[in-house]
Amino acid sequence: MTSPAARRSRPRLAREAVALVARSSPRAFALVCALQVVQAAAAVGVVAAGALLLDRLLSGAGGSLLLPVALLVGSTAASAVAGGVVTQQQRLIAEDTSIVVWRDVAAVASRLDLREVETPQHADAVERLQGQALGRPHQIAGAALSLLGGLLTSFALTGALVVVQPLLVPVLLLGGVPAVLVARAAGRTEFGFSRRWTQVFRTRAYVRRLLVERPAAKEVRSLAAQDELGATQEALGTRYRQGLRRQVRRREAYAVLTALLSAAALAAALTAIVLLVRRGSMTLADAGAAVLAARLLSGQVDRAVTAAGSALEAAPFLAELEAFVSRRDATPAGSPLPAGGTLALRGVRFTYPTGEEVLHGVDLGVGPGQVVALVGENGSGKSTLAKVAAGLLSPTAGGAAWDGTELTGRPGRERLRATVSCAFQDFARFELTLRENVVLGLDPPPTDEAVLAVLDQVGLGDLPVRLPGGLDAPVGVTFDSGQDLSGGQWQRLALARALVRPTRLLVLDEPTSALDPRAEHDLFRDVRAMAGGRAVLLVSHRYTNLHLADRIHVLADGVVVESGAHADLMAAGGLYRELYRLQAAGYDVTG
Fold first, then answer.
1. Residue 62 pLDDT level (bands cut at 50, 70, 90)
2. What's the gap between Cα 520 and its chain centre?
3. How would residue 112 be classed by pLDDT, with cut points 50, 70 and 90?
């Protein structure tokens, strides 16, 4: 059920959509508006030419037919040309509007807290935005332009019909009122259908990606899972089609009802013309012109009704889009914190949207030049704590400070985020150029010399030499000419992205998980030199390198259970020594 507030917002949404399109593509929008006027004038020209032609043919008074024929041909041609140009210009308008709307959506979506981004609700919202809402501003604007054209032409034809027989006008125009109400009801059903079926539609799309895209290709084949996944996507498709079929039937019923109402209005007008001719109140020439005008006016009323229905259908989707892009919880990037500061986390708790609390009052400090390590078993909260320290997650309780200055709210978190660079174990593979993989997000970008230096630092110094195109070589295999990299090379690129940034703190979450032991040793034999004097927060399951850390925090079930240097923790005989010896024993196969 649509609320009164939502109903009142529709005119405002329509106005804002038209204004958005006008700003996005001003020239094309102005041209389309002008061509609507041309089409309205052409419709009047067709009626006038028809009336004049019939009058000269039926009156027997003679006279040249050249003028009415020329007017008829010219008006018809003008209408056809204008319609063709409008169709093509609307393609440009659609693309221009898409660029502007995507810019607004991306600006918000890319700055939301990770805690929300990782929820199914966010995924559903994004699916609806991509599949439905992003095209709606253009739909409403297109509908508004079509409505404008329909109304202009209707007014022009109404004027022509008033001259011939004014009694026919209310019959045709009033027939459009119930049609608009029916179109409004039909449009409301579309938004409800989209919300109900988003989850199924998204699940099917995911399974299809598993079947056809590269990331899962090896495991799908090794597991021989093609048939099972194929059956799953087909079952989901069948389920979605059943819902779609019911929605299509509803829309078909509304369409039939709208057409019957329009046909009834036209039939009433034509019946009135016949009665007026029989009574002698209208000449045959006027009747012919009236029939032509009535038929054209009926078509324009249908056009206006369809446009109004399209705008009403799009309004709920546009409201959802407007709510998304106007969110206040997507804050702009902050400025980096002062150099040489110490990050202190105090009493940090974190609860995921599922209700699971994974951090329970953790304290942590990282000073300039220090290397602090986080260790613990899987699920102990290490990666979550690293994301909080990087400003990527907001703690549900507790806080952070930089040199004693509290980092409160989202502005404080954004300043922290601008101060930290990260390398994650689940790193992104940006299938861009080699240079872009390193400098992405930096403005101004570092020099080529700096890029080459950091690539050499992470063990990729020969890569620009081996790849055709050097730093401009595309990497990955999604696009033409791309060069694939090994898992270790991709992870080294992720590490290079973190190192090249002029930040104060490095957060390294299993940054060598894809590297072999020799490569890992070479990278971390002097972690301080690699960090360039910056503070380092290192998450690792590999205990062999942890003797380099100034301080090691051992997490268990979201709580720090031990802290100290490697030697102290080994002497303490607690969880750290147990985990260290378990890992070391795996390398000792002598007996």
1. low
2. 38
3. confident
- Supply the DSSP string of 305-354, one letter for each residue: HHHHHHHHHHHHHHHHHHHHHT-SSSPPP-PPPPTT--EEEEEEEEE-TT
Task: Give the span between the Cα atoms of 399 and 293, in whole angstroms.
Answer: 73
Query: Given this model, what pLDDT does residue 560 score?
Result: 92
Contact between residue 494 and residue 501 where contact means Cβ atoms under 8 Å apart: no
Q: How far apart are CA 518 and CA 463, in angstroms?
A: 19
- What's the rounded Cα separation, in Å, for the pair 587 and 443? 45
Query: Do 229 and 210 touch, CB atoms closer than 8 A?
Result: yes
First to last CA, the chain: 74
Peptide bond into 502 cis (omega under 30): no
* Burial readout 408-438 (b: 16 or more C-beta within 10 A, e: otherwise): eebebbbbbbbbbbbbbbebebbeebbbbbb
β-pair partners for 422:
507
Strand, coil or helix: what is 85? helix
What is the band of 414 on the pLDDT scale with cuts at 50, 70, 90? confident
**Cβ–Cβ < 8 Å for 490, 514:** yes
Kindly report the three-state secondary structure assignment for every residue of 546-591: HHHCCEEEEEECCEEEEEECHHHHHHHCCHHHHHHHHHHHHHCCCC
Give the separation between CA 394 and CA 405, rounded to whole angstroms: 17
In whole angstroms, what is the distance from residue 561 CA to residue 186 CA?
61
Domains and CATH numbers, the chain: 13-325 (1.20.1560.10), 343-424+484-494+504-587 (3.40.50.300)
| 423 Cα distance to chain centroid | 26
Residue with tokens 């925090």: 553
Q: Which amino acid is at 115?
A: R
Closest CA to 506 of 395, 383, 423: 423
Choose the most confident range, by mean pLDDT, from 71-75, 110-114, 161-165, 477-481: 71-75
Residue 428, token pair as written in the block? 């992104």
Rounded to two decimals, the pTM is: 0.71
Token reading at 172: 């045709």
Q: Which two tokens stand for residue 563?
A: 């802290």
